[in-house]
Amino acid sequence: EADIYQTPRYLVIGTGKKITLECSQTMGHDKMYWYQQDPGMELHLIHYSYGVNSTEKGDLSSESTVSRIRTEHFPLTLESARPSHTSQYLCASSDRGNYGYTFGSGTRLTVV
Amino acid sequence: QQQVKQSPQSLIVQKGGIPIINCAYENTAFDYFPWYQQFPGKGPALLIAIRPDVSEKKEGRFTISFNKSAKQFSLHIMDSQPGDSATYFCASQGGYQKVTFGTGTKLQVIP
To answer: Taking CB atoms and an 8 Å limit, are B49 and A100 in contact across chains?
Structure first.
């Protein structure tokens, strides 16, 4: 079944640790996105990619980085986690001919 | 940055009521207007979408009304049920552009 997968679902880590949030999709979508969502609900775009080897920063400044080496894989990395990074991170994808976004279930990150 | 203004921020209705969520956009180049539904612990899921060449679209109990001249669109949920309790996001998109999301409406349907 075509879908988009995020791992881990929940993560609690200490300050200063390096972490990578994984996102993979099986739909062959060209475009992929990372959003940050706090309890206040609003979705903030932090990174996006329109294809392999293409990455751009989003509307919200973020200390994270992304890579797109394979179409199906779009990991997000925090080199040194801080408590201010505590949030929910949502990955999404879309096909060039289909405007709708497919979201993963998210990673709830807590930095202590 | 082009915005999509969504209201209300939260909404409580009785079961069977018809909650209405409104959105207004600025960019006349937008040509796709989806609504997403998000349950706690899940990512948003595409619920229903409309193109600006029609004024209304219905899918089951969900209806989008679209007013191109006013640059506004709204979501109506007929015969609302407790299972409809979720956060709803409107969005707008044009061409190859990224989606612009509204700020979200938390809906609670009480029995």
So the answer is: yes
